Each structure stands twice: as C-alpha cells, then as structure tokens.
Hints:
By secondary structure, the chain is mostly helical. The chain has helices spanning 22-43, 49-55, 60-88, 90-109, 114-142, 148-176, 181-184, 187-200, 209-212, 216-235, 245-266, 281-310, 316-333, 336-341, 346-364, 373-399, 407-445, 453-466, 469-508, and strands spanning 2-6, 12-16. The longest helix has 40 residues, at 469-508.
Amino acid sequence: MTESTASPNGGPQPQAIPPPSLRDWIAIWSAILGAFMAILDIQIINSSLKDIQGALSATIEEGSWISTSYLVAEIIIIPLAAWLTTVFSPRRFAVGVSALFVIASLLCSMAWSLESMIVFRVLQGLAGGALIPFAFTLILTKLPLSDRPRGMALFAVTAVFAPSIGPTIGGWLTENFGWEYIFYINVLPGILMIAGLLYGLERQPPQWALLRKGDYAGILTMALGLGCLQVFLEEGHREDWLESRAMVALGVIALVSLITFVILQLSRDNPLLNLRLFKERNFLLGSFANIGLGVGLYGTIFVLPVYLAQVQGYNALQIGQVIMWMGLPQLLIIPLVPILMRFVDARLICAAGFFLFATASFLSGNLSPDFAGDQFFGVLLFRALGQPMILVPLSILATAMIAPSQAGSASSLYNVIRNLGGAVGIAALATILDSRAKHYFDLLRVHVTPANPAVEERLALLTEHTGDASVALRLLHQEVFTQAQIMAYNDAFHLIGILLACSLVCVLLVRPMPKAGAH
C-alpha cells in the first residue's frame, strides 16, 4: 500500500507500509501494554504515598521525591528512546527496557530506605519512559494510515484510562494488601509484554557504530535541561518558586541547557531530535493542542483528588472510586472512534472532543460545599465522552504528514510535549490553588465582622451547637477558609477549560487528513 506523506520541508514523499501481520499486531499490543503500565505507575503510587513514607521514615517533603524521581527519569529517556532503539535494534531495546521495568518494580517493593526507593524509582522511570514513545513509534512504522486509527485507539487507552484507574487500584491494593503490591502487579504484565515483544519483533543487528557518532552534547544538554525543568516544576511550589535559591539555580540551568540543545539540534544534519518537524503545519498545531490536552489530562487528575481530600474529606479509596468514572466509560467509547473516523472528518471529531472536555471543566468550576463525589459523576461521564474523541484523531492529524523515517523524532517530541504540558499545568494549578485561596480568604474575611447580621446569626447557631463561643469562632473561620478554597478550585477548573478551548482552535486550523486515511 502506498501512501502520500510529507517530509519535514513540506514536499510529498511516498511511503510504502505493507498491511500489518499478526506478529506486527502482537508486537504493538505488547508495546502498548508496556506504555500502559508505565503511565499507570505514575498515578498508582499517589494513593499509597503516605504509607510508603511511613514505612521508609520519610517526611512529606522527602516523600515527594518518590514521584519526582520517576517523572524526571521518564522525561529524560523519552527523547533518547528513538536513538537508543536504532543503536540496540528495536527488539533488543524493547525487551531490555521491559525486563528492567519488571526488575526495578520488584526492587521498589523491597526498598529499605528513602534513598534506595529513589534509586529504584529512577530505574523504573527510565524503563517505563522508554516504553511510551516506543509503542507510539511502532504504530507509526508498522501500520499504514488506514489502520493507524485502530493503533492510536489502543494507545489512547494508556493515556486516559491508566491515569484514571491508577488511584483506584493503588488505594484498593494498599488498603487490602499493603503498598508493596502496587509494584508486584507489574510482574505478570511485564512477563507477557516481554514474551509478546520477543515473538512479534524481528531480529535486527545492532548499529554499534552509531555510538561513536552520537550527539553527546545534545544528549547532555537535553538531559540536564529537561531534568532540571521537571524538578523545578515538581518542587517549585513547595519551595516558593523564585524565593528559593535552589529553584532559581534549577530554572537558570534548565533555560540555558534547553536553549543550547535547540541551537545544537538545528545546526546539525543528523540531530538527536529533528526539531525541523515543527515546520510541518499539522505537527506544530497538533503539538500546541497536545499541550492543552496535557494540562487537561494531568491537571484534572491532580486537582480533583486534592479537592475531594481537602474540602470533602475523602480517603484514597473513595477518591479512586470517583475518578474511575472518568476512565471506565472510555473503554467502551475508544473502540468506536476509529469507526467514526471513516465517516466524519477527524478534525471535527477532535474539535468536538475538546469542546466536551472543555465544557466538562467549566461545569466542574461551579463547586460549592455540597458538590462532592455524587455530583461529579455526570461531569466525569461528559469528560469521558470527550477524551477518546481527542486522543485518537489528534495523534493521527499531528503525524499523518510525517515520513515513517522520522517516526522516532515525532514520537519523542509529541510525548515529551504532552508530559511537559501536564507538568507545567500541574505547577500552575498548584500555585493558583494556594494564591487564589489566600486572595479569596482576604476578600471574604473583610465581611466577617460582628456588625454583619448574617455573621452574628451564624455565630449564634454555632455557639448553640457547640456550647463554646471560642469553638464556634474557630468553626466560622474554617467555613470561611473552606469557601475561599472552593473558589480557588473553581478558578483552577476554569483555567483548564480555557486552555482546552485554545487547543480546540488549533485543531480547527490543521490541514485535513490525506485521502489514504479514509480507506
């Protein structure tokens, strides 16, 4: 089958990808299972973090590095995955990182100190992070454009379903068996993944000569820049951003390193990552839309559990039971999207998905003290309908004009951008929740005076209920602070909705799919 794609400079470049065999599909399924487990492990640990901190005698600040170390390793390895795949050969690389992921998971369950856990989480993040772009690359290289929607539908499960069920699984395993089991569950899927990759991928010789020609300056600046940026975004809020010398240093190192990396990549004929892919209109606009999607996906998973815990007093298992309603319906919807793409323009499907997702976010921004888990179900179902309509068409639209020879760079850039969008979004949302809560509390406190009849009446009721005027005053103070928090959460959800609306505009500006995609 011959397809018309485009090279990074915009010219037509015919590419022939034969129809996928059963072995190809087994390899793709196995790689997607790996990506699913890798993304699951980002969220599943959040429900068990307090238990792990207690077992390792770590403070809350120290325990945050259990998550941060994984994310830093993941963001560094994603851009390197394409080059390492070529050096070692796809089969060797995929099987090797899959085995490392299983071994690192077992080591995490046996960690005896915070330091050992961080080391093992780094190994797990390096392996898991490599599996995500590898699965994406396999879809681009093994599937012709007509079959690619089905492959992207499978990949979409990793991006939306894994984060949604992660807190639920983590909370249930920790409550019933212990935190170690959140790592044990990686073993059986890992073995299946390795077996499928060994069968589905053909043996190819490694290209050790590429090690001598490696862009090590690019690797160093990229790793240093992305690593420092990820730590800056993850820890900046806790350290009060630029009030901390360490955060300032990290920010400066990240900025200088990434600027140097971009200059190096644009000045070389054979770069580590082909940044010239952004000359292609669909890839550029698709990447911009992907930033908003990252904020929406990871921002919602961040804001909603914190709201349920802080304002509504939910425990980890209760939070997971609410969030799973954002994930379970998508298993039914995702398979329908490739079928719908045969009859409806992918741009319209994607735009409709962003519209539903943005609308759900704006509806979530109408919180009140009585707005809890039950009230979220309708909104989460609305969001669950929109997310699959985004992920499958957006991936196709962004990469349809990219030559298969550039699939590695496209995959790395596309996945790094979504992860960075999520990291930036979470950092911004955490800051907004804190600063806006203080702002609204100051505004509300002005009206809480003895001269206000409503305040006097409320204090009288609380005093009658508690029998102590000082306790009643503290309760009133807490009610005012809770209301300020709720208003801050409303702002956070509104910001997510605005960024998703911007992504919608980007999607409407992309070129239509090549005709081959309809067959």
